[in-house]
Amino acid sequence: MSVPRHTVRSILRELRAMADPRVRAQMAHFGVHVENAFGISAPKLHRLAGSIGKDHALAQQLQATSNHEARILAALIDDPAKVTEAQMERWARDFDAWDVVDGTCCYLFAFAAPAWKKAIEWSRRREEFVKRAGFVLMAYFAYKDKAAPDSRFHRLLAIVRREANDERHFVKKGVNWALRNIGKRNRALNRAAIRTGLEIRALDSPAARWIASDALRELRSRAVQERLRRKTR
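The structure corresponding to this sequence follows.
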């Protein structure tokens, strides 16, 4: 009987050996407030993930440890083809930091079959990091899902407008990100996103005004407009 090359225990030993007090000290500065963390840079976690390879079962075990870096690593080694809606909900219940949310959505959930459904559902959730995850997924769909028709993004823009009054920091940043990325997908969606931004700007809340002004500045910029023109040639 062969012995697994990597186990949760061996990986946690590796993570502990990679701990950097300087990285740990910087985490709070970047808005990551968690207790169970070693302090490991993203490039080091990516290199470790590459040495482990894809392992769905091991990813579930790492996620269950409650260690910050182990959860980031879990998203890097899991197989999106095996991700179920139940798993997405289970992992989302443990979201406690924006970097875990963003990494999980970027490297795993955005490619999972239930992703679009969960993004729409999570956009209505009260938990700050779960709601952020819904909009982070929308932002990633804009450039990762090459086959999605514009009609799907028009629906997302309506959701962005609906939730633009949420004043919580990590939610409004996610809403803004989704609006900007959808508006950079193509020229038609750029025009639609700009219209959505103008509608959001008219809403009576500081969050809406910030979301709109920041997004409109980028979506109307010369750099974005020129890039979209080149894409249509």
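The chain has 14 helices and no strands.
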